[in-house]
Design a protein that fits this description.
The structure is a homodimer of 93-residue chains. The first copy, chain A, has 93 residues and is mostly helical. Chain A has a single domain, classed as Winged helix-like DNA-binding domain superfamily/Winged helix DNA-binding domain (Arc Repressor Mutant, subunit A, Orthogonal Bundle). Helices cover 69% and strands 6% of the residues of chain A. Chain A contains four helices and two strands; from the N terminus they run H-H-H-E-E-H. Chain A has a two-stranded antiparallel ribbon. In chain A, a hairpin with a 4-residue loop joins strand 1 and strand 2. In chain A, helix 2 (19-26) crosses helix 3 (30-44). The longest helix of chain A is centred in the C-terminal third of the chain and has 28 residues, at 60-87. The first copy, chain A, is elongated and about 55 Å long. The N and C termini of chain A lie far apart (40 Å). In chain A, 28% of the residues are buried. The model of chain A has no long low-confidence stretch (mean pLDDT 95). Chains A and B meet through helix 1 and helix 4 of A and helix 1 and helix 4 of B. Chain A binds a DNA duplex (25 and 25 nucleotides) through helix 3.
Chain lengths: 93, 93
DNA sequence: GAAGGTTACGCACAACGTAAACATG
DNA sequence: CATGTTTACGTTGTGCGTAACCTTC
């Protein structure tokens, strides 16, 4: 029930461990990112990041998710790319 | 850029090949489904379904996508499940 | 003329940015 | 007290259902 946008946000935040930088990379405000991540955590029923107002760290669950998501998202992108390719002629057999 | 909701809709429609039934399974109206699918096609720049007002069929690109998506979506769900599991105690080592 | 897909239209909810608030090093 | 995350608030845009429309058998 989290959407792709939300999952990609989690991945970027896991890389940056900083809401400001991650939000900039995503082209949204830090507060928007904060809300997105909290929403994901609420939907999953899992805390992914341990925040203090000075630091952001991954929890065990967050690390697990951040580890597995990129491959899953790439596979998804490959499926979409395959569909595009099939329309743009394919081998033109 | 299509979201998960949209991709799942494509999968269901590919299974049903009928907007009414697919929409019912998704818990939305047929018109909403029609719009979702058209939006996906526009974003991908690919026609996925060949519609007449009597039949719905998969195009080559649509078949390709419908074939690859389920596995990709499952992998994504596994990533989410893994995160959940990690929080709910794991092995409680 | 019935069944099924699409377009028009009005509305409601979700998501955003700005700004203020709060916490921590 | 500077840096960085979160909450409040008002606004906008996205997505929906209902209903009307068009096409095909």
């Amino acid at each position: 029930m989290p959407e792709l946008r939300d999952l990609r946000s989690v991945v970027v935040l896991a890389e940056e461990l900083h809401f400001g930088r991650a939000a900039a990379r995503l082209g949204i405000s830090a507060s928007a990112l904060s809300r997105r991540v909290r929403a994901v955590e609420a939907e999953l029923g899992v805390v992914l990041f341990e925040r203090t107002s000075r630091t952001v760290e991954l929890t065990e669950a967050g690390r697990e998710l951040a580890t597995r998501l990129p491959a899953a998202l790439r596979q998804l992108d490959r499926a979409l790319a395959a569909a595009r390719w099939h329309s743009d002629g394919g081998w033109q057999v």
